[in-house]
Amino acid sequence: MTAYMSIDVPVRGGLLRTGVWGPDDPGAPTVLAIHGVTASHRTWGMVAGALPEFRFIAPDLRGRGRSNTLPGPYGMPVHAEDLAAVLDALKVPRAVVAGHSMGAFAALVLANLHPGLVQSLVLIDGGLPLDVPAGLSDEQVVQAVLGSAAERLGQPFASHEEYLDFWRPHPAFAGHWNPLLLDYLAYDLQPHPDGGFRAATSYAALAEDTAELHRGAALLRALEELAHPVQLLRAPRGLFNEEPGLYAPGYVQQWQQRLPSLVVTDVPDTNHYTIVMDEPGAGSVAGVLREHSRFPAGAEPGVPDGVA
């Protein structure tokens, strides 16, 4: 079993909880992994376990997990500064940076604001602007993209079992109940002020971050000024296990035309969640991260075995 510990990193307003897997060796290859909009660092346990020789660092972003009491403002530039503080605290001069879902947007902005900290970027079903109809309000974008995943944030749950029952019908997890998912869901609960439990993510953080992705400038600037090797891993199925997934192939092709350095790889038999939280997704992601750790700055990412 890969060694694991958690630390608290000082950032603006308090402490950022950070999970660290792997050897306590500053010379080990290092991945900085950034979770999605309503998630936590426990998303990454299976990917980290497939890379036991790596130092695998994953924070709970501001407003999520055990970092959920950190104050706003939120937004990708704020997350980027928190992430830079994590690398500084752990004395990591440079890392392969992986981001899942919203974490991919934060990864791009980190690379734009702190290019020297980033060896290469692995964007996992995220990072490209959301393909949503024009004219939607911020709240409509939240509902269109996240649906019940956002609605649960204000909902009380009497017990951990009730929270599991909430998730059991979710189509993305049908056939994918595994120890990592159970650990992730248990970690996601915290005491509710009125009794029982609630999900750990702050709705204010979710709303502000989604609004910035919808109409903010930091992401577009990061894409326009992209200067690192970058690979997008696309899940063919979406948040509700639907096709064509969060990013339709034609939409991705449009972005490839705008970003010639962008390498896009489909990870078969995955949806938006299982691409990192079950097999075969977690193993495929780990293989790509291992490949990225091997090539020097300026090299183009390749496609490892097992990924179509």
From TrEMBL:
InterPro entries: AB_hydrolase_1 (IPR000073), AB_hydrolase_fold (IPR029058), AB_hydrolase_sf (IPR050266). Pfam families: Abhydrolase_1. GO terms for molecular function: hydrolase activity. Residues 29-143 form the AB hydrolase-1 domain. Keywords: Hydrolase. GO terms for cellular component: membrane. The keyword Hydrolase applies. Coiled coil: none annotated. PANTHER family: HYDROLASE, PUTATIVE (AFU_ORTHOLOGUE AFUA_2G14860)-RELATED (PTHR43798:SF33), MONOACYLGLYCEROL LIPASE (PTHR43798). This is Alpha/beta hydrolase. The lineage of its organism: Bacteria, Bacillati, Actinomycetota, Actinomycetes, Micrococcales.
